[in-house]
Design a protein that fits this description.
The structure holds two protein chains of two kinds.
Chain A lengths: L5 H21 L4 H26 L5 E9 L2 E7 L1 H24 L8 H20 L3 H19 L6 H29 L7 H6 L4 H19 L7 H8 L2 H26 L5 H23 L4 H28 L3 H36 L15 H14 L6 H13 L10 H31 L16 H19 L1 H16 L4 H5 L18 H22 L4 E4 L17 H4 L1 H6 L5 E5 L11 E5 L1 H24 L4 H18 L3
Antiparallel strand pairs in A: 1-2, 4-5
Chain B lengths: L3 H32 L9 H11 L2 E4 L4 H20 L15 H21 L3 H32 L4 H9 L7 H17 L18 H4 L5 H26 L10 H28 L8 H22 L4
Helix pairs in contact in B: 1-3, 1-9, 1-10, 2-9, 3-4, 3-9, 4-5, 5-6, 5-7, 5-11, 7-9, 7-11, 9-10
The chains are: A mainly alpha, B mainly alpha.
């Protein structure tokens, strides 16, 4: 009996997800059956996908051909190391989200649970198929299934108009992106008509066509990932979707776009030009800066996280740009360093951002409130969620010893090598770009302190928050699972990099494994320990030891007495919850310093107002610079068409008559 | 690789930091008083204060959560780690590989996030004001600090603080113009990060101008003691880092016991001069408005970038 190949197992897992989804339709109103049986089953499949993909890392690529698809183009599938890294991410992160979802979806909220279960599991299966697809047709089918299923998930609560609107915007931009991807695949076939990825690899494109394919891929996958200026759907769709769906979209779906970009630019295209990297670097920096600045001024917790996702995707794009630049100059060892940073940030972001989105889900359930201005003090009522969210917040702020710092550290290390580039001005400009990366990371810290401090700390801003309850057991399990991933990624970077190194090696021909093998599992020294090293375990142990020793010594030498009284606050007496910073107040310095970056409508109270109020509305410049002009142009074109299409048969007959005449004139033999 | 003498040296460096840090704060306070024609407080005042605060009961606000109580220990731990990896006496530090210069910036960042969160925890107006301002200073200062580190890392071809210091201490006498830019930028950043005068005033209790003091208003007893100690450790860490990077002479290479012993009085002397200079600069400057702080730190950032460009343009062959 032959043993099951990993790719077969993954295909079975995708079918199992589909089957679970269909089972949901058997009893679409039976919430208990669906949430307590089907979603945990889906989580188990996720664990299977994750571990199979993890096990297959480092092995040879496996292919399979399915007998479905076009008559002359059946579905080609392939599991190589790059797909395996992202399949691992999908599997392990989906475990946490699915278990959380088991406790999250309740009766009578929007779409019937059975339908939701179907959409959710089709979404999971289609993402897996995107990662496995080895021809353009299978890829596009999976890609579109992914877009459609996530569209239906976003519009779960379709009774609200703004949610329908957000879903429509998402669908629109997803399709603009899909067209670009389709064209990109068309360019890459080189006119040979072979749509399998193997055929595309065999093509030798001229630099012009290769550049066209790369730019189309950047636009197409960038639309899905949220690169500026195609980012506008993220802050609309994430707040609209239920929290597990936001977590899945932000944590995993955005990474499939990164996967696609890596697949096209490093695997399918052979030529790499240095300016491709510069384009990705600049777009990435703009995206990261834009995302983080807007995330600091948001007043809706899920919008804040959505903008923070834009920022992280920007950082990933910066890493891809740096990899491309190094790769174009055949500096493969340095390219491998930057590529590792990219892959690591994908893993880290998917875990901590899913965690944070799920935490907002718990807060939303407990308080029915999404606006930061009406939350506060929840650490007293929801200690589990609050402490687990703290891990996500620290990772998201890019601080040691958690996961976000590792990838940032690797990225900065690779920036330090950019003065060695054999190019007259790149070697000057690129190192300075590192300062912007640090600036983004530091601002992310600001946004995260705002997010955490306003939701969980301080006094409760509304009396109703007293009744908030902590997350249930299923939700807790999901949160703990993702926190554990964040922690592991943070303190065991060497171990993780040794596993994902196979993907780097596949794309660039070299990796970091040889260097890392020379040192212990606790040390991350990608070049040499003299050059740079980071030991998160020692780091954590030192801080923890000081903490515990300090606490013990203080209690031993002195005492541990505590007295409770009301807050001091310089003797100010009226310390209601209104005296604290609001979400708007907290970000006031940012709005003031970066005023030109925002489009603001402000109303200030004056001394003579009968009912004084303050309001500030921050909007995206891109709406007014790009989207509204495009929408207006589309409207203008349609009015032209309306004048042509009057609806009278006689006019249409005249059109036919004129067309005929013109054709007769033109098409004379 | 890790020797007994290295471990002993590491433990000694940490102990020395814990002992010297309050003394440095006391010395700066004394110099400030002299320069401002006041009667100086005793040099050991910070120790008396720590002793007093540790003895006192902790008075906690009703709304304080467990995070509020954990934060002083975390901040203190971060500062101890920072002092452990900055070579003050010797470059042979077993803990040094745990964090390079970039991770060192991360340690300070972690402490900053915790103290800001703790400031927001009780939910008073001054607490959240302080937390917001601290994060503002943080995101302006961090890029400048990192550019300084980049410049030095490019000179030494390493981001490990110990390797940078060793390279700089044992180079032949070449003048690096980039180091001058980096040094000035570093000074600016350390003033901002340590809540010193142009940006913040450690002695103020004028409510509207506070940053650091506003954050620790609700703390008392042992928690306040730890935070005060951590603040002086931070000043000590920044001073030692500046001294090690820009005046590295006298720091013992490896496990040379004699050089280590000789390094102690030299370090004390350097810190005393540095502290006096700090007090002097604080005295002749006025505190700027909070919205001038971006200009101050923007200057630091531009200087640091200039240092980096000078390094790349002029010195890349050196």
């Amino acid at each position: 009996m032959t043993s099951l190949l990993p790719i077969d197992t993954l295909l079975i897992a995708a079918c199992a997800w589909l089957a679970i989804g269909l089972l949901g339709l058997v009893a679409p109103r039976n919430t208990r059956f669906i949430s307590k049986t089907l979603f945990p089953l889906g989580a188990m499949i996720g664990a299977l996908v994750g571990s199979v993909a993890l096990g297959s890392l480092g092995g040879p690529a496996q292919t399979a051909v399915l007998a479905i698809g076009l008559p002359d183009l059946p579905f080609h599938l392939r599991l190589d190391n790059l797909s395996a890294v992202f399949a691992m991410l999908l599997g392990f992160v989906s475990v946490g989200i699915s278990v959380f979802a088991a406790g999250y979806f309740r009766k009578g909220e929007g779409t019937a649970p059975g339908l939701l279960c179907l959409e959710y599991h089709v979404f999971l299966a289609s993402m897996l198929m995107v990662l496995l697809a080895d021809d353009a047709y299978a890829f596009m089918v999976a890609w579109e299934t992914m877009a459609l299923s996530s569209f239906f998930l976003v519009t779960t609560d379709h009774r609200h108009e703004e949610i329908r609107r957000a879903g429509f915007l998402y669908l629109l931009i997803a399709h603009v992106g899909a067209i670009a991807i389709l064209l990109c695949f068309g360019v890459m076939t080189g006119g040979a008509g072979d749509y399998s990825f193997a055929g595309m690899r065999a093509q030798q494109l001229s630099p012009f066509w290769a550049s066209a394919a790369y730019l189309l891929a950047l636009a197409g996958f960038g639309a899905k990932a949220g690169l500026v200026p195609l980012h506008v759907w993220l802050p609309e769709a994430h707040p609209a979707a239920p929290s597990p769906v936001s977590a899945m979209m932000s944590g995993v779906m955005l990474k499939t776009a990164i996967y696609g970009l890596l697949r096209v630019s490093f695997d399918l295209l052979h030529t790499t030009l240095w300016w491709w990297g510069v384009v990705a670097l600049v777009v990435g920096l703009v995206t990261a800066l834009f995302g983080v600045l807007y995330s600091t001024v948001q007043n809706d917790m899920k919008r804040l996280l959505a903008y923070s996702s834009i920022e992280n995707i920007g950082l990933i794009a910066v890493g891809i740009g740096l990899t491309l630049i190094f790769h174009a100059y055949r500096m493969e060892a340095l390219a491998a360093l930057a590529m590792t940073a990219v892959l690591y940030h994908c893993l880290a972001h998917s875990a901590f951002k899913s965690l944070l989105f799920l935490c907002t889900g718990s807060v939303l359930h407990a308080t029915r409130e999404r606006s930061l201005g009406k939350l506060g003090g929840l650490i007293h009522r929801m200690p589990w969620v609050a402490w687990l969210a703290l891990a996500g917040v620290i990772a998201s702020a890019g601080l040691p010893p958690l996961s976000g710092f590792v990838s940032e550290w690797l990225l900065l290390q690779s920036f330090l090598f950019s003065p060695g580039l054999p190019h007259p001005w790149l070697n000057m400009v690129v190192p300075v770009a590192a300062a912007l990366v640090v600036f983004v990371a530091a601002l992310a810290g600001f946004a995260m302190v705002k997010f955490y401090g306003i939701i969980f700390l301080g006094q409760m801003r509304e009396p109703g928050l007293k009744d908030a309850h902590d997350a249930g057991p299923w939700e807790k399990f999901g949160l703990v699972w993702l926190t554990l991933i964040t922690l592991l990624l943070g303190i065991l970077p060497s171990t993780v990099i040794l596993r994902i190194d196979a993907a780097t090696r596949q794309l660039l021909g070299t990796g970091l494994a040889d260097k890392l093998h020379e040192h212990g599992w606790w040390m991350l020294a990608p070049i040499s320990p003299e050059r740079a090293s980071y030991e998160p375990v020692i780091f954590l142990v030192t801080i923890a030891a000081t903490l515990l020793l300090g606490r013990w010594l203080v209690r031993r030498l002195y005492h541990g007495r505590v007295r409770r009284t009301s807050a001091w606050d310089c003797g100010y007496y009226f310390q209601g919850p209104r005296a604290q910073d609001t979400a708007e107040g907290f970000s006031q310095p940012i709005r003031r310093i970066f005023e030109p970056m925002f489009r603001m409508e402000r109303h200030f109270p004056t001394a003579r107002d009968a009912a004084p109020y303050y309001s500030v509305k921050v909007e995206d410049h891109f709406w007014y610079w790009l989207y509204l002009p495009v929408a207006r142009a589309a409207g203008w074109v349609s009015t032209l068409v309306v004048t042509l299409q009057g609806g009278r048969i006689a006019v249409y007959l005249m059109y036919s008559f004129i067309t005929l005449l013109v054709l007769l004139l033109v098409a004379r033999p | 690789m890790i020797s007994i003498s290295g471990l002993l040296g590491q433990a000694f460096a940490i102990l020395l930091a814990l002992v010297l840090a309050p003394l440095l704060s006391g010395w700066v306070g004394q110099c400030r008083a002299w320069l401002q024609n006041r009667t100086a407080p005793p040099l050991l005042l910070p120790y008396y204060q720590l002793q007093k605060l540790f003895h006192k009961d902790v008075v906690l606000a009703h709304g304080a959560s467990s995070l509020f109580r954990a934060a002083p220990f975390v901040v203190f731990g971060c500062m101890v780690l920072a002092c452990a990896i900055i070579p003050s006496l010797s470059t042979d530090l077993p803990l040094a590989p745990a964090a390079d210069a970039i991770a060192l910036v991360g340690v300070f960042g972690l402490a900053r996030v915790f103290i800001s969160l703790a400031a927001m925890d009780v939910g008073t107006s001054f607490g959240s004001l302080g937390g917001r301002r601290e994060m503002l200073i943080g995101f302006l200062a961090e890029p400048a600090l990192l550019m300084v580190i980049f410049t030095l890392a490019m000179i030494a071809q390493s981001t490990s603080v110990a390797t940078i210091v060793e390279t700089l201490a044992h180079r032949e006498l070449v003048i690096y113009p980039s180091l001058a830019f980096a040094g000035v930028a570093f000074t600016f950043v350390s003033f901002a990060e340590n809540a010193r005068v142009p940006v913040d005033n450690p002695a103020t209790h004028l409510e509207l101008t506070m940053i650091h003091e506003a954050m620790i208003l609700e703390y008392s007893g042992r928690y306040l003691a730890l935070l005060e100690w951590a603040a002086s450790l931070k000043l000590y860490a920044y001073s030692c880092l500046g001294l090690a990077l820009f005046f590295p002479w006298g720091i013992a290479p490896g496990d040379d016991l004699l050089a280590l012993v000789a390094a102690i009085p030299l370090l004390v002397l350097k810190l005393a001069i540095g502290g006096a200079l700090l007090a002097g600069i604080e005295t002749i400057n006025a505190k700027v408005r909070i919205f001038r702080a971006p200009e101050f730190l923007g200057t630091a950032f531009m200087l640091a970038v200039l240092g980096l460009l000078v390094r790349l343009l002029l010195e890349s062959k050196v």
